[in-house]
Amino acid sequence: MHEFALYGQVTKNDHHRMLQQLAGYTRMQPQDVLEIHLVFKARQPPGLDNVPSAGGSQGIMQPEAQKVRAMLNAGLYYVQLVGELAQNELKHTANGDISMTSGNGNGNGNSEHDKSTIKWTFEFKDTPDPGKQAISSRLLYRIPFEAGDFVEFLNAFGYEYVSRYMLVGSNFYDQDTTLFVHKVVQLPQVPADKAISDVSFLSDVSKLQDFDRSGGYILQASIDVVDGNHPELKDRATRQLLGHKEALKQAVDLTPGDRLALDTRLPSVVRR
Q1: Which Gene Ontology terms describe the biological processes this protein takes part in (predicted)?
Q2: Residue 241 within any structural domain of the chain
């Protein structure tokens, strides 16, 4: 699967107006979204530090050593476990923020009811394609997780837990496009074994701190295509996204995402 996308910035003061414009544009009411994102990173292959970085007594010439290190270091990415809250568990507070319904506001974050309302999905997003592009394009994999110890499962496959955050926002849909207006909020950091079970913060999302201190939002217009290498499907997705860009240009400037900002690769391992 491939993701094609455009991105735009929405200021805090323009957020309500943006929601109203998108509601009129898509002829639908916004659908509230709360997504918990757990970030994992791939562990470097065992023994990578033992590969020499230069020739000498080891008997490996520098170009060959560099090739071996590059091969072992390739394919190391950050991945995410995304937990989406059920729509019937969301409500609006008096100030317009999104929070949980009273049924989950017990504060302990460990009830079976809490777990049953969160749908977890393993998500891998590649780094966007290089070169000057009209839209951002990248490989995408999503795999639903049904039951079990997800963190331990990923650990067994070589991914270690790093941190977590949450997306708070609203979805709109038009043709094949999802228009997602959202902000990123910080979550209390906990050990890996508590990353999923601790959801006590859901009782009052408004108390969580925004990553963007200005309170700004992001508008992501995206289309997921089963075969992004198919020319006809790619052209169709591109036309749709550029059509939204033109239609919404008075409200928001939609552009391809910065490739470095969307890079999901781990930094090259430095020999210690």
Answers
A1: regulation of transcription by RNA polymerase II; termination of RNA polymerase II transcription
A2: yes
Measure the CA–CA gap between 51 and 54, rounded to whole angstroms.
9
Residue 100 lies in a domain: no
The residues with which 78 forms a beta bridge, in sequence order, are 41
pTM for the full predicted model? 0.83
Mind listing the pLDDT tens digit for each residue in 63-113?
665 665 565 556 789 999 999 997 665 655 545 555 555 544 444 444 444
H/E run at residue 164: strand 159-174
Give CA–CA dist 161/190, Å, rounded.
10
Question: Residue 179: exposed, middle, or buried by beta-carbon count in 10 A (0-12, 13-18, 19+)?
Answer: buried
Residue with token string 């989406």: 84
CATH of the domain at 253: 2.40.320.10
- Tokens representing residue 193 in the block: 């074994």
Name residue 80's beta-bridge partners.
39, 123
Nearest to 170, CA basis, from 15, 6, 13? 15
Check residue 104 and give its pLDDT.
Answer: 47
* In contact, 22 and 265? CB cutoff 8 Å: no
160: which 2 tokens?
Answer: 């270690």
Please say whether the beta carbons of 265 and 76 come within 8 A: yes
Helix (H) or strand (E) holding 88: none
In a domain, 267, yes or no: no
Q: What is the distance between the alpha carbons of residues 163 and 195, in angstroms, rounded to a whole number?
A: 8
Range of the domain at 165: 2-50+65-91+116-262
Q: What is the CA radius of gyration of the chain?
A: 21
- Give the end-to-end CA distance of the chain in Å, rounded to a whole number: 37
Tokens of 227: 């075969």
C-alpha span between 120 and 196 (Å, rounded): 10
Question: Structurally, how many domains does the chain consist of?
Answer: 1
For residue 267, give both structure tokens.
């930094």
Residues in the chain, total: 272
User: Cα–Cα distance between 48 and 50 in angstroms, integer?
Assistant: 5
